[in-house]
Amino acid sequence: MPFVENLEDLIISRRLRVPVGAAPAGSTPGWGEQAARQLDAALLSVGFKCSAALLDRLSGLPGETVVDLGVRVLAAVRRLVGDHVQHNAYFIDFPANVPDTLEFWAGLLREALLDPVAAARVRAPALDLLTLPGYGRYQHSYADLLAAHAELMPLAGDRVTVLELGGSLESETRALYFSLAASEVPLAEEDLAALRALAAFCDAEPERVPMRENRAVVNEARLAAGRSLLVDTVTDVLRLACGCSGGDVTLSAPTRFRSFRRGERRALLRALDAVATPAKLGDVPRHREQWKRLGERLHPGEYPQFPGAAAVFEVARGVRRATGLGSRVETALSAGRAAEAVDLLGEAPGALLRRLDHLLRTGPSAGAVLDAARAAAAGASGRVLLSLREHLQNRLSPATRRVFTNREGRAWATPDSRPPLEEAVVADALALLDEEITRRLPDPGELIVDPDALDVALPLSGKAVAPGLGMLPRGSLSRLDGESLRFFVHWRQSEQRTDYDLSALLLDASFGNPEHISWTNYGNDFGAYSGDVTDAAAGASEFIDIRLAAATKPVIIPEVHVYTGESFNVAAEAFFGFMTRDAEQEGRPFEPRTVRMKSDLRGSGRVALPLVFLRGDDGVWRVKWLHLYLRGYPDFNRVEGNRVTGSLLARSVVERDYLRVRYLAGLLRSKSSTASAHTTYIGLHAPATPPAGARVFTPSTLHELIPA
Questions:
Q1: What pLDDT, in 10s, does the model give residues 194-250?
Q2: How far is the C-alpha of 256 from the C-alpha of 266, rounded, in Å?
Q3: Which end of the chain has fewer CB atoms < 10 Å from its terminal CB, N or C?
Q4: Residue 519 has what pLDDT?
Q5: CA–CA separation, 562 vs 565, rounded Å?
Q6: What is the C-alpha separation between 656 and 646, in angstroms, rounded?
Q7: Could you give the CA distance from residue 547 to residue 581 in angstroms, rounded to a whole number?
């Protein structure tokens, strides 16, 4: 039962759909309608409600069934919005009555001097202000906090997220499994874990599994069930072995391989033997050490019937030589034989397009390189085409610095020393890409696009984006409604004392003239900090409240710093989010129905930059999604220490021209046929009554729009 409930939670949180099976045989509806209405009212308190179809379906079920399902649904959405924990604040009246920073510290010192034990520490040669009595620990209970705040006044602007009626758990699980398995973009770590659970539950086989990491996860289930494996490169087998050993299928970290059963060894070696052609052996040196360790577990010498598999381990040990395509291309380029490099890359269309910018600058001629790109475009993935399109549309107005982001969201910047590309060459490259992308798109029939979704960036990679409520891909732009903005962080330590600090970096329109709000500066004329909590054994929350109408800075960058203790991926729990309210709304520091976004913090970085709030020339505030992490220092990270880096990276995302839904919608409209009877809808939320047979794309399924 717990496993099934986990799948149910997964469907609700990922798809905002409630799986509802048939009523138990012989049961009568009873008081199901009353229970359904009570569930709808309870959901509304946390900003959710049942759709009309879901409410009608629940009303026809026995009351006991509705209550049991309702308890699970309510728990799932509370976790989704961050209301499953108690959000206390250091200053009980926050955002009112937050003291001046210097007055607060002076008060702590005064109290310490009146305490004989604490006074001895105060008079010590070196004074650590953070060790003063009472600092960093809640001075009141959560019940005291609730008593100090009035009830939230519900307003029309509060968030109401509709939960749709789903099918049976089996059908909903199958649909999510197929969607994740067939994704054309890399999945987030959490989605890979979800795919693993779904693969173990579903017997059905997806038709296509294009991403290598996804294929490894699906192959784990196939290997366990004794089915044939989906492999076409030797590296596919290595990824599978890593996944079966509880390791990293992305191969970015070494794996300690487990002992494999004889049947598993035979299956892995058979699959390896089938793909170990001379050309593909060139992939082995890239992961030489991993292959050596795997060979110690598979014992290929015991299976002479698989000579190709034995050759793989011979290459890994250096007994046999194999040169990969990348090595041959680099040799040709370093020797000045660019034409030869272009010919070699013709064997790998995706690799050629990824190097197109470099080849246009160093190749034999722009015309020859574009001809090669035109031939390669038909064989490359849709994601590669879209990524190259986004890259090239930013080349005509390059930034002074290039910003790189790895799969964990860690970002760094270097000066951009690339020579510019000719405008005509870029225009020709963009035209051939647009032509090929358009060719691959389906006929959308009647296309309906929510205007609010036009500025959502296409999800060309989901690696750095942890799933959550209201999450959008990096580079997306969305309108911010409400008069008061409040962002928050909550964390709970696993073993050692952990202190996270929520801060706000405030900048002018040119990303200069910095100010900040943090534990070293409790506020200004338009913002206030809820107070520093330095121990999270039972969980801790911090808030920053901004009155947008009074804000004198048009750029606000929330930051979460690991001051001491466990990093985001070690802590028992860590998440960030933001709320918006109207001026007349008071309520608790955390009100779930006002939460617009909430997502887990993760990764090895010690500083998180989730998003940036921007006030445009029209006076409207908008959110630009960053999903960035900085390495930071091992301890004592503060907003004052990364002003330059934080503003530089945020500015790079703000100024970059991301490929958005607007672009893809334009291409889809050019293929729309009036003869087609179906409808395609793209929006931030599913429509209340979509046409029968309509294909609906929301942020959770936007990756399905990326053509194969």
A1: 999 999 889 888 889 999 999 999 999 999 999 999 999 999 999 999 999 999 999
A2: 20
A3: N
A4: 95
A5: 7
A6: 16
A7: 10
Instruction: Tell me the per-residue pLDDT of 316-334, one tens digit each, with 9 for 90 and over.
Output: 999 999 888 888 999 998 8
Domain ranges of the chain: 325-440, 446-456+660-705
Residue with tokens 């979704």: 453
Determine the residue type at 208.
R
User: Residue 345: CA atoms inside 13 Å, Cβ hemisphere, count?
Assistant: 34
The secondary element (H helix, E strand) that includes residue 513 is none
Gap between the terminal Cα atoms of the chain: 37
Three-class DSSP category at 479: strand
Distance of CA 461 to the CA centre of its chain: 9
Q: Is the pLDDT of residue 307 over 70?
A: yes
pLDDT at 15: 94
Output the six-digit token pair for 689.
């009554």
What is the distance between the alpha carbons of residues 92 and 589, in angstroms, rounded to a whole number?
A: 9
- Amino acid identity at 554: P
358-387 in b/e burial notation, b at 16+ Cβ within 10 A?
Answer: ebbeebeebeebbebbbebbeebbbbbbbb
DSSP class of 556:
E
d(CA 213, CA 184): 11
**Angle between helical axes of 212-225 and 169-181 (0-180°, round to 10):** 130
Q: What is the DSSP track for 209-225? A: --SHHHHHHHHHHHHHH
Q: Does the pLDDT at position 404 exceed 80?
A: yes
3-state helix, strand, coil in the chain (%, to 5): 40, 15, 40
Average pLDDT over residues 611-636: 94
- CA–CA distance from 638 to each of 101, 104, 544, 559 (Å)? 16, 19, 15, 9
φ, ψ (nearest 5 deg) of residue 292: -60, -45
- Find out whether the peptide bond into 95 is cis, omega within 30 degrees of 0: yes
Helix or strand run (H / E) with residue 448:
strand 446-449
Question: What secondary structure letter does DSSP report for 346?
Answer: T
The answer for residues whose C-beta is within 8 angstroms of residue 333's C-beta and 6 or more apart is: 341, 362
The pTM of the full predicted model, rounded to 2 decimals, is 0.93
What 3-state class would DSSP assign to 449?
strand
Q: What is the mean pLDDT of residues 288-293?
A: 96
CA distance 347 to 280: 12
How far, in Å, are 54, 167, 454, 684 from residue 696 at the CA level? 18, 16, 15, 10
For tokens 């002479």, name the residue.
Answer: 304
Give CA separation, 140 vs 134, 431, 530, 594, in Å.
11, 63, 14, 24
- CA–CA separation, 198 and 173 (whole Å): 7
Written as six digits, the tokens of 329 are 């291309």
